[in-house]
């Protein structure tokens, strides 16, 4: 038998810890006995009195008991003393001798598996199981008869055993063989009160791993007993309630067999219930010989090669449990001199004729997740599955019940305790979920969405670090400000005109930019946004938010130079002010004078030197002298051939008040305010400019007019230096 785990993997697995006795007659024919214990390398050194001869057929006895197990067909441990077929010469006990004994018996092979499993539990899982009492022979054959002649681990020798034994006997009475057990009565109690029953059938007799699988159940009993006595009792009762007709819905049975198979894959790189691809079948078990085997992410959806629904569901959890402890480095467990690392279940490689042999090269490195918790966390995992299991012995509560949800929750909690991130845990759980869309090809953000939106995965994994999943897959931390999580899990920056909403880049509204706090802030009313900068419109323009463009301000009043009469009234031409409802620039007052080139033509007809023209605006309904005489900004612009307004001058000036000198609290019942005169040079008009705008920032309120009501202004247009004498051309 070859060891399949730890630093000594690949070496022959010797019997160890067994009591070896030498029985002899002294020279005076007095029966004597000498004994010692097999060391870990399977050897024993013993000092024996000289002289005499061997008693019995060989003078040698081997007891099937050590700290790991005691194997018995009756009350005490079994002994092997009949080695008559082996030529074994003691040499008269006259001198030091060395002998090699090679045995081939199924009970010894089974005992070797028990010891090997116990050593794994101690070294890797850091669990110290009690000595397992293993029944063989008649009682085991009878009891296993009620289990389809398969081995059975009942854990009846634990302190809870008195209660378990009664319920176990009651369960056996449901099968024909139970009548035989019942007939044994109280006398049979020590025989039945065993932790494990190994019948003399092919399953335990010829298999390298089935006894190891059964010891996995024993390890589970040990862990549950350490959590709370009621945990083991609840497990026992719920398992009996599920019956023998194993199905996908038998959650406890699935979890129990999956854990035992997980233990078996760790120790022997094989499984009893689970079937795998790239595996060799032997005596009812599958042994990995190449990838993927147990590394395949089974989901319980009939993934090939599924033998039946129970196998399919069990295998799903075996591969999940395996993913929690396996290593990315294929040689890690082989090179660990302390033999404390979980394995990758890749001890064997295929040999000709369907055989397997140990391989020094690993092939099942963990490539699809980041989880790698130590074997010592396995016990914590069970404790995290049923953390509230407490109570008086004999009355286990529902909180002690083991099911698929709790086992996965316990696994997730243990991963978190070992420093795993939410992303890591989500990936492992979802890789084995029925809700997964594929076993390996789902992108990180897709897996995260499933963990958040799928049941029961959302309950198993818990809430993510960010509710909108804006996470960096490498760290599972929130992406830096201004970035979002790509489907690959990388944090990518938004564009300069975008902000982050949830896990999306959203373009700021037209006319807005992204500020230092990465928020959309609107530009000013006369600004548009370009390359995440606020760009000011021309003075004659306003920003159109919907199109993020600069548009010309509407004229508040318009005068067509060609419409001037032959004679201009001294008080000026009355021009209506447009309604404020259509005013696109309410903070400015614009007078637009069109066809100003006509002034040049009129000057030529009148033989007047044309140096330019002036426009004076008067407000006859002004009421405030102080407001009229306040300083105002005057801007003049001409409409160019390209269709845009060009400023040609700007100045500040005060209005001229025409009205009473003294008013009541600056409120005058009548009065006219002449705003400063605007000059347009002849050269500018001669260059092709046809339209003129003046006044700029003079607001409606400067005229004392209600903002929402129309009114009138007076406009006087003249050749520079004199009033223009109006007459037809």
Topology of helices and strands:
Blueprint: E1 19-25, E2 31-37, E3 53-54, E4 60-63, E5 69-72, E6 79-80, H1 106-123, E7 132-135, H2 138-145, E8 152-153, H3 161-172, H4 177-184, H5 189-192, E9 196-197, H6 202-206, H7 210-227, H8 229-242, H9 251-268, E10 270-271, E11 279-282, E12 285-288, H10 309-325, H11 332-335, E13 348-351, E14 355-358, H12 378-385, H13 404-417, H14 422-431, H15 444-453, H16 457-461, E15 471-472, E16 477-478, E17 483-485, E18 491-493, E19 498-501, E20 504-507, E21 512-514, E22 520-522, E23 527-530, E24 533-536, E25 541-544, E26 549-552, E27 557-560, E28 573-576, E29 591-594, H17 597-605, E30 612-619, H18 625-628, E31 631-639, E32 645-654, E33 656-658, E34 672-674, E35 678-681, H19 682-686, E36 692-694, E37 712-719
Characterise this structure.
This protein folds into 4 domains: 1-420, no CATH class; 421-500, no CATH class; 512-551, no CATH class; 555-719, no CATH class. Helix content is 26%, strand content 21%. By secondary structure, the protein is an alpha+beta fold. Strands 28, 30, 33, 34, 35 and 37 form a 6-stranded antiparallel β-sheet that branches. Strands 1, 2, 3, 4 and 6 form a 5-stranded antiparallel β-sheet that branches.
Question: What structural keywords apply?
Answer:
729 residues, alpha+beta, five-stranded antiparallel β-sheet, 19 helices, 21% strand
């Amino acid at each position: 038998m070859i060891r399949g785990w730890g630093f000594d993997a690949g070496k022959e697995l010797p019997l160890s810890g067994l009591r070896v006795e030498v029985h002899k007659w002294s020279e005076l024919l007095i029966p004597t006995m000498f004994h010692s214990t097999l060391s870990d390398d399977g050897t024993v050194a013993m000092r024996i009195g000289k002289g005499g001869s061997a008693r019995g057929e060989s003078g040698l006895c081997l007891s099937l008991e050590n700290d790991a197990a005691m194997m018995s067909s009756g009350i005490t441990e079994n002994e092997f003393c009949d080695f008559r077929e082996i030529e074994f010469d003691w040499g008269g006990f006259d001198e030091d001798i060395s002998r090699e004994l090679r045995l081939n018996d199924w009970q010894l092979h089974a005992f070797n598996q028990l010891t090997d499993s116990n050593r794994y539990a101690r070294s890797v899982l850091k669990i110290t199981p009690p000595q397992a009492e293993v029944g063989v022979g008649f009682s085991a054959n009878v009891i296993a008869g009620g289990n389809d002649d398969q081995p059975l681990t009942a854990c009846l020798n634990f302190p809870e055993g008195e209660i378990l034994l009664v319920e176990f006997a009651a369960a056996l009475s449901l099968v024909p063989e139970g009548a035989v057990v019942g007939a044994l009565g109280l006398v049979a109690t020590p025989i039945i009160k065993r932790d494990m029953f190994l019948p003399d059938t092919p399953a335990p007799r010829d298999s390298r791993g089935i006894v190891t699988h059964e010891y996995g159940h024993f390890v589970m009993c040990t862990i549950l007993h350490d959590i709370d006595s009621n945990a083991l009792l609840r497990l026992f009762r719920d398992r009996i309630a599920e019956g023998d007709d194993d199905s996908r819905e038998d959650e406890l049975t699935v979890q129990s067999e999956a854990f035992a198979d997980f233990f078996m894959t760790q120790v022997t790189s094989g499984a009893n219930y689970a079937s795998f691809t790239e595996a060799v079948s032997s005596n009812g078990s599958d042994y990995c010989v190449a990838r993927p085997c147990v590394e395949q992410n089974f989901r319980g959806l009939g993934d090939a090669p599924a033998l039946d629904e129970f196998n399919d569901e069990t295998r799903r959890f075996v591969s999940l449990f395996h993913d929690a402890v396996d290593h990315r480095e294929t040689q890690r467990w082989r090179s660990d001199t302390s033999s404390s690392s979980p394995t990758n279940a890749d001890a064997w490689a295929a040999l000709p004729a369907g055989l397997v042999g140990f391989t020094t090269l690993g092939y099942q490195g963990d490539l699809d997740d980041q989880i790698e918790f130590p074997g010592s966390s396995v016990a914590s995992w069970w404790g995290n599955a049923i953390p509230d299991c407490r109570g008086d012995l004999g009355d286990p509560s529902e909180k002690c019940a083991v099911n698929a949800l709790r086992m996965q929750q316990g696994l997730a909690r243990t991963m978190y305790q070992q420093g795993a991130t939410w992303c890591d845990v989500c990936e492992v759980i979802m890789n084995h979920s029925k809700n997964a869309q594929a076993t390996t090809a789902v992108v990180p953000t897709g897996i995260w969405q499933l963990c958040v939106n799928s049941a029961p995965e959302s309950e198993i994994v818990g809430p993510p670090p960010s509710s909108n999943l804006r996470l960096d897959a490498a760290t599972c931390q929130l992406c830096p400000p201004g970035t979002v999580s790509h489907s690959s899990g990388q944090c990518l920056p938004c564009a300069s005109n975008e902000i982050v909403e949830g896990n999306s880049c959203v373009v700021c509204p037209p006319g807005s930019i992204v500020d230092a706090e990465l928020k959309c802030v609107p530009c000013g009313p006369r600004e548009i946004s370009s390359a995440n900068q606020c760009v000011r419109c021309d003075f004659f323009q306003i920003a159109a938010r919907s199109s993020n463009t600069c548009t010309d301000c509407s004229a508040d009043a318009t005068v067509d130079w060609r419409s001037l009469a032959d004679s201009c009234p001294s008080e000026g031409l009355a021009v209506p002010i447009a309604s404020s409802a259509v005013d696109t620039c309410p903070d400015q007052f614009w007078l637009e004078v069109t066809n100003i080139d006509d002034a040049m033509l009129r000057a030529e007809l009148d033989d007047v030197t044309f140096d330019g023209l002036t426009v004076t605006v008067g407000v006859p309904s002004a009421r405030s002298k102080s407001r009229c005489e306040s300083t105002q900004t005057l801007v003049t612009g001409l409409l160019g051939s390209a269709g845009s307004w060009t400023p040609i001058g700007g100045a500040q000036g005060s209005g001229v008040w025409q009205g009473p000198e003294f008013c009541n609290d600056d409120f005058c019942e009548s009065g006219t305010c002449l705003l400063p005169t605007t000059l347009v040079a002849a050269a500018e008009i001669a260059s092709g400019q046809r339209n003129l705008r003046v006044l700029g920032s003079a607001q409606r309120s400067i005229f004392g007019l209600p903002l929402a009501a129309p009114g009138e202004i007076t406009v006087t247009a003249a050749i520079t230096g004199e009033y223009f004498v109006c007459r037809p051309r």
